[in-house]
Amino acid sequence: xxxxxxxxxxxxxxxxxxxxxxxxxxxxxxxxxxxxxxxxxxxxxxxxxxxxxxxxxxxxxxxxxxxxxxxxxxxxxxxxxxxxxxxxxxxxxxxxxxxxxxxxxxxxxxxxxxxxxxxxxxxxxxxxxxxxxxxxxxxxxxxxxxxxxxxxxxxxxxxxxxxxxxxxxxxxxxxxxxxxxxxxxxxxxxxxxxxxxxxxxxxxxxxxxxxxxxxxxxxxxxxxxxxxxxxxxxxxxxxxxxxxxxxxxxxxxxxxxxxxxxxxxxxxxxxxxxxxxxxxxxxxxxxxxxxxxxxxxxxxxxxxxxxxxxxxxxxxxxxxxxxxxxxxxxxxxxxxxxxxxxxxxxxxxxxxxxxxxxxxxxxxxxxxxxxxxxxxxxxxxxxxxxxxxxxxxxxxxxxxxxxxxxxxxxxxxxxxxxxxxxxxxxxxxxxxxxxxxxxxxxxxxxxxxxxxxxxxxxxxxxxxxxxxxxxxxxxxxxxxxxxxxxxxxxxxxxxxxxxxxxxxxxxxxxx
Length: 511
Hints:
Elements: E1 5-9, H1 12-23, H2 28-42, E2 52-58, E3 65-69, E4 85-90, E5 95-100, H3 110-121, H4 126-129, H5 131-139, E6 141-142, H6 145-153, H7 155-158, H8 162-168, E7 183-184, H9 187-199, H10 202-205, H11 208-217, H12 225-229, E8 234-236, E9 239-243, E10 246-250, H13 257-269, H14 279-300, H15 303-308, H16 313-323, E11 333-340, E12 345-351, E13 397-401, E14 404-408, H17 414-428, H18 434-439, E15 443-446, E16 449-452, H19 461-468, E17 470-473, E18 486-490, E19 493-497, E20 505-509
Helix pairs in contact: 1-2, 2-3, 2-5, 5-9, 13-14, 13-16, 13-17, 14-16
């Protein structure tokens, strides 16, 4: 194995874990597994062994495939005596309500997902892959500004119970979560990681960890031993789309993010590309985002079948007409991308929601609160179909262009698909480098408000305000606009771009 490649992630230590494994002779899939374990330690609000997600894997010598290990609904949805309650998260510019408690937890898939990937594609022993994460869990990691800020936003969750406060409460500031510069130490999580590496994923789904989860959920939760034992990873063919001279491979249904990105690209394909900051182009892009939001609501009302019709030609033409009606005068998600020297590409997006607020006894694991995520429950809480794979916006993707190949993805709930969309447009339409494409200012249209990062438009703001009414120019780039951590391979040349909006880190080995 050539010790070359590129890694991008949301934390320097997550990136370093993958780099350590590549240098030790592991492949991209080994590296991304090690990075995931590390992210569960150093990005605890965003990643967890109690989470769910997706991996898009494109082996250098085989077909692209998607591993769906997102969360599953429990078999029971009896809401009597449920531990399920709202908290308010303060994002500074806005507040958002989330529901937490034992009743907010769906069946986690991350552990089974990474073990399945390892069985299919890994080359180094799992004991080796957990080593960086175990080291950070036992020795502690100094909280950086980004992670401290994220934890502060959802501090009501990480201070909700005695078990959470014991790990995440600040020793400097009373009544607050850990501050920048404080040491986050998680010895129980380190022991859990070592036990999983030694005993395998059955420990989590049928063994001692499963029993601890079920015992905790017997009081106010929904998860049972049967729910955990029945969990399986779904292997799917990626959604394959063309956009101009590029091919996109992306997460397929029942996840909605890939279809919605494909829908937006299909609308844009027959519109002029325009200058990136030209008001006409920005306005058209905002309109596409707006009708994509509408299409999402309409499609999800019809379930997975509704999603499958999003790319029908007649429906696209109907929405494209809506875009052309206007004329212009002038919570918890992280992503990792890896490519290695053999041309293996891997993109993993995971989410713990924001966390349920309580650690599973003696494990150091905070389970997800996906059943309490309004974005993932658009029809209302506890209306889901029992024992079913949940839908998600997460959209790890591979992009093939005449100039090279990229893998990318993002966190950011509804904003992640517009973030990924704009990086793709920057690469395909505007021929930017991966570093430029990720750093370029973004926009996002939602709930009738057009949000702009500084530099996203060159003049013409008055015209946009006349059309959209509510236009907000942010003072600086912000994690609200996603975190598209991406790598690029062109021939034998590697590039990595960690998105600064979310503390991104990128490393290239063997330039």
